[in-house]
Amino acid sequence: MKFKTYSNKNKPVFVYIHGECLSAFSFKEEIKELKKDFQVVLPILDGHDVAADEKFIDIDTCANKILDYIDEHFQGHIQVLSGFSLGGQIAIQMLSKRPNLCEYAMIESTMVKPTRIKNWSAYASVYANKLAKQKWFNKFMYYTIFNDDFAFEDYYKNYKCMSKDNIKRVLDAHSAYNLASQELKDVTAKVAILVGQREKKAMKKSADLLKSKLSNAEIFMLMNFTHGDFSLGNPREYLRFVKSWVQNKDSQQRKKADKIRQEKEGEYMPNWKHLLNKIKEKRATKTLQKS
Fold first, then answer.
1. Which residue has the higher pLDDT, 128 or 79?
2. Which of 117, 110, 124 is nearest to 168 (CA)?
3. Does residue 173 contact residue 58 with C-beta atoms inside 8 Å?
4. Residues 240 and 258 in one domain
5. Alpha-carbon gap, residue 232 to 23, rounded angstroms
6. Are residues 238 and 254 in the same domain?
7. Beta-sheet strands, E only, within the chain
8. Which residues neighbour 18 within 8 Å (Cβ) at sequence distance 6 or greater?
9. Which range is least confidently modeled, 8-22, 62-76, 179-193, 275-289?
10. Residue-wise burial string across 5-26, b where 16 or more C-beta atoms lie within 10 A, e elsewhere
11. How many domains are there within the chain?
């Protein structure tokens, strides 16, 4: 397994695990901002690296390899563990093996019950592999999963290089994952379970089931979001969540603004300056709303 690292010495460690048939490209926008405050580590799961011939075996093997890397480079502890879809399943597997692995965990759009009926695109990936690797058909498949073309060009380039056997193993492992076999009651991390409001009901049921297994977890419903809309499709929203939930930067900024406001109360200010400040505040509010 390969690991892409964006080192920032003496900073806390942030590990993000990508979803099925994706790769490091699915987190490239977040890296630009997160590497300022974290050492960012992106494992490229076996069977997904176009430059390597390692086969995807199963979720447990991936979890062990990432844990070994964390043990070797970070003394067995990180601050944030984040995973999307298949990456979320691997993150859960890691937490079940190492309850005190991290301080925060973000489990995004992750199924934790076996899926009896697979998506038709999963069947096409295996039984019509040549067709699935045609760009026009692959884009059609991509839309059925993500409902938008967040990173289609990167996805297609990566998918085209994945072997049929690896795709089958990845999709089989993803659809067969079962939370019932995992022990999570001793997990010490603060866990955010993220699910899109527009995702299928089974995903929302999985979120409820996962929360029932964890003593310190909270479900965050992502309004009007579908599968992949968060880390893959809206990196700004993802970063905003990390800043508020992990780094507590939003509250710090509010405290700083309140302190400045309190210091200025009672201070003499000419009317023209007061009016200028009002205009600046309105402009800042509009800019914030646009972003």
1. 79
2. 124
3. yes
4. no
5. 11
6. no
7. 2-6, 13-17, 39-44, 78-84, 102-108, 190-196, 217-222
8. 24, 26, 27, 42, 43, 44, 45, 48, 84, 86, 87
9. 275-289
10. eeebeeebbbbbbbbbbbbbbb
11. 2
Same domain, yes or no: 168 and 279: no
Query: Counting beta carbons within 10 angstroms of the beta carbon of residue 89, is it exposed (0 to 12), middle (13 to 18) or buried (19 or more)?
Result: buried
Host domain of residue 280:
250-290
206: CATH? 3.40.50.1820
Same domain, 140 and 256: no
Judgement on whether residues 202 and 148 belong to the same structural domain of the protein: yes
Please tell me whether the overall predicted TM-score, pTM, comes out greater than 0.85 for this model. Answer: no
Count the helix, strand and coil residues of the chain and give each as a percent rounded to the nearest 5: 50, 15, 35
Whether 236 and 262 share a structural domain: no
How far, in Å, CA of 188 to CA of 216, rounded? 7
pLDDT tens-place string over residues 5-45: 997 778 999 999 998 888 888 888 899 899 999 999 999 99
Separation of alpha carbons 213 and 92, rounded Å: 11
pLDDT above 60 for 124: yes
Distance from C-alpha of 134 to C-alpha of 129, rounded to nearest angstrom:
9
Helix (H) or strand (E) holding 174: helix 164-176
> Would you call 245 exposed, middle or buried from its count of C-beta atoms within 10 A (0-12, 13-18, 19+)?
middle
